[in-house]
Amino acid sequence: MxxxxxRLRRVVERLQxxxxxxxPTDYPRPTVGNKLVEAAHIGELxxxxxxxxxxxxxxxxxxxxxxxxxxxxxxxxxFHLLLAAFTVLLHRYTGxxxxxxxxxSAVAHDPLLLRLSVDPxxxxxxxxxxxQQVERDxxxxxxxxxxxxxxxxxxxxxxxxxxxRFFDGTDPAKDNFIRSTSSTSDLTVFVTRATTTSRxxxxxxxxxxxxxxxxxxxxxRIAVIxxxxxxxxxxxxxxxxxxxGSVPLLTDSQKERLPDPTADLNWCDWKGAITDxxxxxxxxxxxxxxxxxxxxxxxxxxLTYTYGAIWRAANILAHHLLTHxxxxxxxxxxxxxxxxxxxxxxxxxxxxxxxxxxxxxxxxPSRQTIYLGVAQPRALxxxxxxxxxxxxxxxxxxxxxxxxxEVPALQLLRNGEVMGGSIDEGxxxxxxxxxxxxxxxxxxxxxxxxxxxxxxxxxxxxxxxGVKGRHYSLTHFFPWMGQRFEIGxxxxxxxxxxxAHDPIQRDIFTPxxxxxQLYVPTPEDIGTxxxxxxWMAEHQVTVTHLxxxxxxxxxxxxxxxxxxxRNAFFVGDVLTKRDCLRLQALAQNVRxxxxxxxxxxxxxxxxxxxxxxSDDLTFLSTQKDVMPAGSGMIDVQLLVVNRLDKxxxxxxxxxxxxxxxxxxxxxxxxxxxxxxQKFVQNWFSAxxxxxxxxxxxxxxxxxPPAARHWKxxxxxxxxxxxxxxxxxxxxxxxxxxxxxxxxxxxxxxELGEIDTLLSQHPLIRENVTxxxxxxxxxxxxxxxxxxxxxxxxxxxxxxxxxxxxDKGVAGGIRKYKRLIKDVREHLKKxxxxxxxxSLFVPLKRMPLNPNGKIDKxxxxxxxxxxxxxxxxxxxxxQAVNPTEATIRAIWGTILPNAPDPIPLDESFFDLGGHSxxxxxxxxxxxxxxxxxxPLGLVFDHPTVADQAAQVDVLKNADLGLDYKAPGVPTxxxxxxxxxxGTDFExxxxxxxxxxxxxxxxxxxxxxxxxxxxxxxxLGAFVLKDLLQSExxxxxxxxxxxxxxxxxxxxxxxxxTGRGIWDEQxxxxxxxxxxxxDLDQARFGLSAAIWDKVAxxxxxxxxxxxxxxxxxxxxxxxxxxxxxTLTGIELASAGRQKLFVFVSSTSALDTPHYVQLSDSxxxxxxxxxxxxxxxxxxxxxxxxxxxxGQSKWVSEKLLFEAGRRGLRGHIVRPGYVVGDSKSxxxxxxxxxxxxxxxxxxxxxxxxxxNTVNMVPVDHVARCAALAALGHLRKNCAMSVLHITAKPxxxxxxxxxxxxxxxxxxxxxxxxxxxRKLERHVxxxxxxxxxxxxxxxxxxxxxxxxxxxxxxxxxxxxLESVPVETGVSVTEEVMGLYLAWLVQVGFLPQPMSSSGQxxxxxxxxxxxxxxxxxxx
Length: 1414
Prior knowledge:
- By secondary structure, the protein is of the alpha/beta class.
- It has 43 helices and 46 strands.
- Helix 29 runs parallel beside helix 36.
């Protein structure tokens, strides 16, 4: 015992504070629960890799081994080498240096948890030795996994210990461990080694079987992992001592999808100067509207300025600047606001060959002076609408800058005339001398390398850096954008970007290039909630450039739709799925383009397109929360470079630093040293032959004048400082910053700059600023600081704080409220408003990690729950009435004979709705509101009022599928979700206090059986088994119909259609049909019939039920639950009867039973899964389907009745499918609808989960035997699990389609789901249409089924010979498909390459019959 305690102590010590690896995924990781759709990929390592493994195994490390002991190092096995390489891949994918992997042991039964430390500079051989040592340590301390988990206090519902597993397929079975950790594992690798002959190569033949969660990964990514593992092993085989961080992961197959860093990017493709192109447009159509400006006066009409008017104004201003000595590339500073004057001032500056820069009057005066100091302008243009320059700024201009010319008040009048204002009161307008030059272009030559813009970025020293932008980028990408995004002279643009940031250039230059119109809003249009959308709709805007923050402002409280908006280009910050959904809700025709770039890259950016919802409603459903950077535009490359060796390009999935390669980069910074650090020559093409400079040396004619301002071909890259990785399709996703620079609301912020200035406050001792997310997941700046204990500090402390109030973060904020205010004012003088932290948190001391550095994750976050919830409630209240009206209108178009008006509190189903119409309703709700409304919403919330409330939760809180949000109650919603559990407690009061024992003569004579559900699929086979048994003298069948004759005929037809009817049953009077109904009192039987059955029958076999996968519990309750109570009543009326109830494993569909079954494997008592004597308490909460809930309540009532004396059995099968010999099956079944839907779609999902499919003849035989007393007659409601052995996987089932010639392709589950949803929306006749809620919402959890122990069933079958099939084999699947084809349910296979379908005897007289309610 002491030894086990010591081992446990060592294991716990090794596994303290284990990190949780976060592998790059293709799809968003579910935020709630551990959903799993398991898929499998088989990859064989090439012969060359196998030879590399052999070479590594023989590597002699005597010279490099640090172990100086006399022991000889153990030769690594193939498994060790593969595990070491796999560990390196995990490190390269995540950047993590502390990795934990679940694994197996060749010498121990229990699994191993291997914690491996990895450094990019480690040689590969060191990792191999580390793997061996860690494995030895783990084997020495091996313990049961459950013991380790318990010792580490890891709740199964919390974060798992590991997410990746690596097993040797030849090790002893670890079924328990494998199943119990499957739902929390992202990847599992099984290594198998083929047996070979003596003639085979010495190199091992290795196969990798990878099981993965297809809700996270595509099959392409898994294939990439195998490819990279193989490539990595081949490379290190020749150099085992190579640093693992720099061994290339880029494979030949990946190179085809990733950018070639040596490719020609059309460096000499100069499109011309934007000023020249604008002048050409003004010459072609001088009277065309160019800028349309909304006046501040609401009563005034928009101010429209033509191309000709702006061209003339720009010419006048340009001549004025030139006359007063402005030289080429000198800076002209514009003191501006959004207006036509800003457009004219920029054009005028560029026409002179000078460089423009813009100052926003909203900046603090101190910030304005810093910008002026960096820019050193020689001219100043003040727009009249921008107001007066601050006195301290004016003083700085006068004393520190050599301004040659100033335009004090630039204004364009309504008639197009331009005025510049007067220097002195009463003097002439400064532009008056140049008015006569309005029609004359200055004709200053501009070339691609001319400097036209000066923008600012934050600097780590606190001083902003000036970025000098080239003319090349101002026009180069527009022709491509026009063609790619259908932009042209017909387009209408907006001016919404911040005027002092480089995106404003995109706002202005794009329409001027195309000859389009630019619309300018007022500050009120932008700032008033909801107004901006109205403004865009009013002006029929088609193109807009936004930051995510501006997009959020656009969608805030917006109700107006913008149907004309076709393109929305986002740039400047991280774009989230929520941002996209909000915009799509306003503009269903908008194509969203996420653009990645910086001030330094100018227009050279990458892009990722999100199609409009009118084209593809489902696109965003498979996207992660943050949109990727995408791929480079024309002549732009995003290169992800290895951080350890810059000469190595990263492979797919590997984290590296992003470099932007393009001819459109900015010239650099004002600071030459900073330019050299960030703008670098392309070392990948350094040895390439120089390309021909067609700008200086054109193929025909002489070099153009612009070539005088061209520095030649420069293959440069910009080092972004962003981390990123290539995705399998070649696009790039960002993975954080290599430094502390961040972006918030579109503004780039240097955290170091904030901390530098914060530390200059006299009362701050320590400080650190972080980006945190608030309760709405919005990024905010939080500064943590420790006040300096100094005499002056007392003056900033609150004098109303008690000792208790001083405790905690909130107390500290209250105590230092005055100090925080002073600190904020201190920063306001030095930083722009967007760089001021939102929260300041005073601390007594900074938390430190073991390295003595600030432990940032441990810094507290002030609680903002109350404020967030208040805002959420306010938003919800505002949106209710319009949402109700919209949903009511949708109902009116869907419901047949809908009342007018439609009541807000009546059920959709009570007004004529059904499951197919409910599916249509959900699609309309999704399309109208642009939300991910789950298909079960209509059933859970069937009224207009409830649906509107839930839609508002989804719209305003962006909760996705988690639509049952707390804090937004709707009538009956919370109660309905779990009422089945409380309903059982109420219904059990209707049971008798006790039930009599079975009669002494029970089973001594032939049985008379009362059967329900005989017209259903399973019931028909139960009826056949009963009447074919010599133990049965008579069967009473309850059939729902108007008369006994009609009921008999209905039973005859349903049984004949399944090939099992025998007229002798009726003629011999062994079958008597009784008219009744399950949901009626006493089954609708007359008193005489009831008494007859009560006194004559020996056993009740209650098989009847209303089977529906989407109806809620309350709708199924009468036929499924109350009917069970009626059956119990009948069992105890007259002579006591055996009661057999046919249930379903849907009563177990909760995570509890999956976890329970995992823990029961390898049980010491021999249990094979969920025991049959389980009390079902694990499903009291959490069952999703109303059908499963109704079966749970029925079973619980029977358990309780059994405790009170009732005797009988509960038969609990899984999916009941066709007869194993005749193949006749039920076509109205989820399994066969799934098969048919896949055939119609032409795609099958990759799902490796098992499915408990049991042939109907086997289930019927078990139910009949149970009713005939083949188990102990005094058994108190024992359960019989009917489970397939072995179980088929979904992949086995789907692949049978291709085997028999159906043209279907396999794809990932999420890809299949998305394409199915699109297919159904387009055609609405797919077989899965009525069950889409199950496929699209619940399949990930429903396909993960628990294993079931079936010892009672095995005992039952031991008493009689059984010839039925207990599972569905591949051969039986062929029979089923053949039968489905013959009865017309499935089409004939189209491909001749598949094997022929087997022949089914007797199918000619059978018909495709769906499930019936008896």
